[in-house]
């Protein structure tokens, strides 16, 4: 009499799984069930999940399979091989308990089938379990060695598809197509999005505004989501891979060059990381969802030197008409209307743009070249120290002392390079034929970038108003409520 069968399918990254694929496993298991007169009740599938002691991923369908066997929904479990079910000795013991307690049978297409209700069958199962676990650990050690060697060669060692680069593509049988292009080949339209976003961040635009643009473009995230979020975008824009650098466990490998093409330059990479990861640049307006006023979290209070926030205040008591204003964050030190203050700041910035134009963004190329040369020399010195430590010519204490000094200097050079790349906040505006018109046009220069330009050209401080009522003709004059200090953008 036939049995009620549950077929378990699993594919992992080992050779067997790639060659067979879950579809072919299912076909062979169904043939075996039909040849024995069994009825297939359900298919249980865990795709691309390992079953060894080293695997950390849960197997939801394996758990469902065992639960269905315990409640009598299935009487027999069929799989392609015994190690498709598991490579873990503890789970083998669970299968033995399932057979002894519930009478569940196990059948395999390409592995010996044995009766777990007999001592001989349990002995064979345990021997195979130990062998499968040992084989899995051998595979794990070999894979670790191969990954370390691949890192030293600058190769991609796998993981989630990096946005901007080709991901893994499999055929119907689970075989990887064009394996040599995985993680290496640039996807041009995604790379163009990264380049554009990096320039927008450097120019002062917020991550939220860029995410809105990316979501509207219809290009999904690497995980297939239609909506982009600032945290996801930030991870993509600040990864070393974009500049052709190797990263392992959060550390950039200084002496290894990646084999894949870079999407952005080293200077752009340093600049975008400086903006998005440096605490000094983590001002709230970069992620604001409703930026309307130029000076929010940009202008400073003359009383406490803290940043000002925007708020609505009444023009005359509680019943008066409300208008936008800047208030001190820490209390009621002072408050001032937003529109006339912004008008004064806009006038000042436009005047500087018209007067100095492209001179505001001139950065001597020779200086940047010298800094890159200096950075390369410092990295070479670190590698020389590592060799001296390995050859026993240098003690570990001396190595650490000298290396730390060089790293501090390298950080200074990288910061300088980043600031030079960040000077492009003025590019396209200061060097335009009519820079003031471009600056004031919200379509050409979004408010995030206008704020960044203001921040690059001046420091704005809001002053306390003088006591007493102003003459009627001076009521709209707010020049005595603002102090603008010039910055040298270049």
TrEMBL record:
<dbReference type="Pfam" id="PF07508">
    <property type="entry name" value="Recombinase"/>
</dbReference>
<dbReference type="GO" id="GO:0003677">
    <property type="term" value="F:DNA binding"/>
</dbReference>
<dbReference type="InterPro" id="IPR038109">
    <property type="entry name" value="DNA_bind_recomb_sf"/>
</dbReference>
<dbReference type="GO" id="GO:0000150">
    <property type="term" value="F:DNA strand exchange activity"/>
</dbReference>
<protein>
    <recommendedName>
        <fullName>Recombinase domain-containing protein</fullName>
    </recommendedName>
</protein>
<dbReference type="InterPro" id="IPR036162">
    <property type="entry name" value="Resolvase-like_N_sf"/>
</dbReference>
<dbReference type="InterPro" id="IPR050639">
    <property type="entry name" value="SSR_resolvase"/>
</dbReference>
<dbReference type="InterPro" id="IPR006119">
    <property type="entry name" value="Resolv_N"/>
</dbReference>
<feature type="domain" description="Recombinase">
    <location>
        <begin position="172"/>
        <end position="283"/>
    </location>
</feature>
<dbReference type="InterPro" id="IPR011109">
    <property type="entry name" value="DNA_bind_recombinase_dom"/>
</dbReference>
<dbReference type="Pfam" id="PF00239">
    <property type="entry name" value="Resolvase"/>
</dbReference>
């Amino acid at each position: 009499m036939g049995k009620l069968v549950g077929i378990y399918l699993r594919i992992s990254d080992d050779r067997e799984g790639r060659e067979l694929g879950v579809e072919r496993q299912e076909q062979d298991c169904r043939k075996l069930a039909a040849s024995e007169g069994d009825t297939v009740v359900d298919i249980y599938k865990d795709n691309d999940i390992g079953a060894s002691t080293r695997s950390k991923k849960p197997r939801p369908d394996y758990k469902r399979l065992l639960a269905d066997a315990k409640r009598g929904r299935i009487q027999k479990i069929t799989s392609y091989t015994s190690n498709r079910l598991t490579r873990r000795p503890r789970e083998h013991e669970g299968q033995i308990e399932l057979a002894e307690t519930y009478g569940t049978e196990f059948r395999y297409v390409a592995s010996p089938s044995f009766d777990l209700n007999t001592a001989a069958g349990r002995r064979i199962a345990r021997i195979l379990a130990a062998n499968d676990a040992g084989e899995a650990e051998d595979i794990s050690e070999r894979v670790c060695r191969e990954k370390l060697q691949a890192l030293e060669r600058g190769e991609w060692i796998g993981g989630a598809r990096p946005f901007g680069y080709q991901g893994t593509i499999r055929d119907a049988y689970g075989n990887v197509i064009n394996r040599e292009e995985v993680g290496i080949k640039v996807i041009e339209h995604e790379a163009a999005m990264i380049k554009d976003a990096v320039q927008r961040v450097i120019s002062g635009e917020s991550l939220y505004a860029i995410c809105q643009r990316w979501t509207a473009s219809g290009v999904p995230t690497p995980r297939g989501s239609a909506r982009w979020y600032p945290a996801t975008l930030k991870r993509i824009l600040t990864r070393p891979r974009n500049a052709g650098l190797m990263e392992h466990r959060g550390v950039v490998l200084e002496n290894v060059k990646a084999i894949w093409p870079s999407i952005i330059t080293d200077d752009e990479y340093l600049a975008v990381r400086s903006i998005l990861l440096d605490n000094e640049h983590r001002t709230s307006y970069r992620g604001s969802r409703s930026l309307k006023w130029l000076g929010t979290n940009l202008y400073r209070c003359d009383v406490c030197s803290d940043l000002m926030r925007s708020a609505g205040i009444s023009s005359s008591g509680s019943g008066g008409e409300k208008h936008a204003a800047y208030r001190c964050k820490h209390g009621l030190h002072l408050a001032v209307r937003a529109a006339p203050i912004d008008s004064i700041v806009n006038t000042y910035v436009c005047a500087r743009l018209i007067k100095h134009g492209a001179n505001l963004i001139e950065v001597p190329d020779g200086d940047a070249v010298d800094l890159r040369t200096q950075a390369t020399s410092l990295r070479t010195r670190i590698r020389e120290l590592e060799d001296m430590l390995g050859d026993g010519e240098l003690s570990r204490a001396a190595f650490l002392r000298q290396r730390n000094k060089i790293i501090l200097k390298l950080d200074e050079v990288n910061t300088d390079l980043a600031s030079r790349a960040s000077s492009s906040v003025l590019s396209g505006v200061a060097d335009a034929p009519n820079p003031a018109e471009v600056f004031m046009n919200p379509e050409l220069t979004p408010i995030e970038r206008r704020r960044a330009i203001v921040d690059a050209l001046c420091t704005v401080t809001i002053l306390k108003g003088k006591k007493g009522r102003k003459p009627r003709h001076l009521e709209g004059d707010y020049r005595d409520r603002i102090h603008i200090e010039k910055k040298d953008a270049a």
